[in-house]
Amino acid sequence: MTTKIPPKKKVKKAGKANLEALGVKGMSDILPKDGELWKLIMETGRHLSELYDFHFIETPTLESPEIFLAGLGEKAEEAAKKMYSFKTPEGEDVALRQDLSAPVLRSYIEHHLGYFASPLKVYHTGSVFRFGKLDNGNNREIRQWGFDIIGDNDAVYDMQVILASLEFLKQLKFPNLRLKINTMGCRVCRNNYHEKLKAYFRKQKVCGTCKVNVEERPLRLFKCVEAECIEVRKEAPIILDHLCQACNNHFKAVLELVEDNGVLYEPDPYFVREKEYYSRTVFEIYSGDYEHSLAGGGRYDYLSEMLFKKIIPGVGSALSLDRILEQVKLRNTMPRARNNNRVFFIAVGEQAKKMSVRFMNTLRMNNIAVVEALGKKTLTAQMKFGERVRAPLALIFGQKEAFENSVIVRDTKSGAQETVILEKLVEEVKKRLR
Ligand SMILES: [Zn+2]
Ligand SMILES: [Zn+2]
Question: Hey, what's the torsion of the CAs at 127, 128, 132, 137, to 10 degrees?
Fold first, then answer.
């Protein structure tokens, strides 16, 4: 057997002109300058999850494509074209996940999680990948935080994912939060409703696209932005008039809880989710006059049956973390917390630099954050960098100090400085940072 060595590829050097083109379209970075806010968002989520008794779960980025296509029937072929899927070198079909709830449900079944908790309440964070127009701030990769409750269809669980999502945004100081809410009914009542909807739209003058959609997907007509269609749907039958007793009771129970908890809400009969696994409650959360939803979700009581032929109810919510970060930054309402428990370490001379690595580590292992610019050779250059860091203390370690086993501790505000022996460094620094 001969192994062919592929010819060396010419590596293009990134010229100045096309630096922006290095990243893949529709993918974004979270930069160090936003790191503190990102951490704050994550910590808010973790803290809330603990208070609401949601437990951590993480599923992989790649799943089997069927997970996202099940239950779509004839529409699966069309949906598959809009999925980021590929064949692995080993010949398996895989897909980048499109949402987080389906993989969580897959994990629930695979690991029999229902035996350990009923219902199972989990939170998770990660990216989902969606095909679509990349303008208007839409990305292919969307970072999300999710809450899911699997194994019970009681309205109290719908309310808990809604409340956890609302509180998440409230803690990040989003103003005027409001809940858009509707019900999708169940298989019993919604088929009847869809027939009524078709019968109504057939008799109306709608745009060309809607005309095509009436028979197969009448709910899509609620999403049309053509003026004539918007006008026509004002008189369209609404699901609330066609709910079965059980769905009616469920929606009533959710709305009562919404009111009990003082949540500002707008029932919107034209707000729908088309995927057939959704049942009953669907919702989105908005803040102030920001046009996009910050969170959204719903009950997916049919998903498990479509995927795994097992009837397991579930409800979930996903928060759009990219939008949340962007808005928190714009609004500038959250403190950019910085660790004030830190020092700037300056070392001059090769010997001092070498020794300083060990001292810095000792400080760090004593919970004191240490910033340095040891790559810069001179005292002035390091000092200059240190000014930007704004640490309360600067530690200066030069040739003389290295020889004397001491270090100069300088208060960066007052400029007062003192020589401290290395043995007492941690103790002295702690005392001054207090
Ligand atoms: Zn029903
Ligand atoms: Zn239309």
Answer: -30
Please check whether residue 124 is in contact with residue 146, taking contact to mean a CB–CB distance below 8 angstroms. Answer: yes
Task: Measure 321 CA to ligand 1 centroid, in angstroms.
Answer: 33
Question: What region, left, alpha or beta, does residue 136 occupy, with left being phi > 0 and alpha being psi -120 to 50 degrees?
Answer: left
Q: Do the Cβ atoms of 396 and 346 come closer than 8 Å?
A: yes
What ligand has the least distance to the C-alpha of 247?
A: 1
Residues spanned by CATH 3.40.50.800 within the chain? 342-433
Tell me whether strands 55-56 and 120-129 are parallel, antiparallel or unpaired.
parallel
DSSP conformational letter for 286: E
Ligand nearest to the CA of 192: 1
How far is ligand 1, taken at its centre, from the CA of residue 420, in Å? 76
In this structure, which topology does domain 342-433 adopt according to CATH? Rossmann fold (3.40.50)
- Residue partners of 355: CB distance under 8 A and separation at least 6: 347, 397, 402
Pinpoint the residues of the chain covered by CATH 3.30.930.10. Answer: 25-186+244-331
DSSP 3-state of 227: helix
CATH 3.40.47.10 assigned to 25-186+244-331: no
Structure tokens at 127: 């990216």
**Closest ligand to residue 239's CA:** 1
Please name which ligand lies nearest the alpha carbon of 153.
1
Distance 299 CA to ligand 1 centre (A): 13
Integer CA distances (angstroms), 395 to 50, 221, 332, 380, 419, in order: 39, 67, 33, 14, 10
Which residues have CB atoms below 5 A from the ion given as ligand 1? 185-186, 188-189, 244, 247
The residue ranges of DSSP E strands in 246-309, in sequence order, are: 265-267, 281-287, 295-299
As a whole number of angstroms, the distance between CA 217 and CA 194 comes to 9
Residue-by-residue pLDDT tens, the chain, 434 positions: 445 555 555 545 544 556 557 888 889 999 999 999 999 999 999 999 999 999 999 999 999 999 998 767 677 888 888 899 999 999 999 999 999 999 999 999 999 999 988 899 999 999 999 987 777 667 899 999 999 999 999 999 999 999 999 999 999 999 999 999 999 999 999 999 999 999 999 999 989 999 988 988 899 889 888 999 999 988 999 999 999 999 999 999 999 999 999 999 999 999 999 888 899 999 999 999 999 999 999 999 999 998 888 999 999 999 999 999 999 999 888 776 666 788 999 999 999 999 999 999 999 999 999 999 999 988 899 988 888 888 899 999 999 999 999 999 999 889 999 999 999 999 999 999 88
